[in-house]
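**Sequence, structure tokens**
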Amino acid sequence: MNIYPYLNFDGNAEEAMLFYQSVLGGEFEGNIGYFGEIPGMNIPEEEQNRVMHACLKISDSVKIMASDTSPSMGQIWKKGNHNYISINADSKEEGHRIFTQLSSGGTIEMEYQSTFWGAYFGSFEDKFGIGWMVNYDLKPGEE
């Protein structure tokens, strides 16, 4: 299992991540994804270029991940909701267990489920007000 910081921004995630890269080095894993690229979603024009996900790999064990909030989806940035703890589980089952146990008594934002980006993912605020994301990247042949 790996644990990474996940930062939220209000429309300037790409600028922030490029700045962090200029200072800390590293390379982006994959492309920076934008809300306008989500299949089947009707995203307002002013939000289409907001970052849905970016991952800056600084070393084999250090990554910073980020996204912009999406006001049309009810996500409003305010100081205090701009940081999550992201867990990358070693198996789909481990991810489900962690999600279920940590979210108990909290508020689920997105159920742990299969996603269009080839992972199982869920997010929630725990009973102490801390934001968590649980992700498991599917291996070839897994569903």
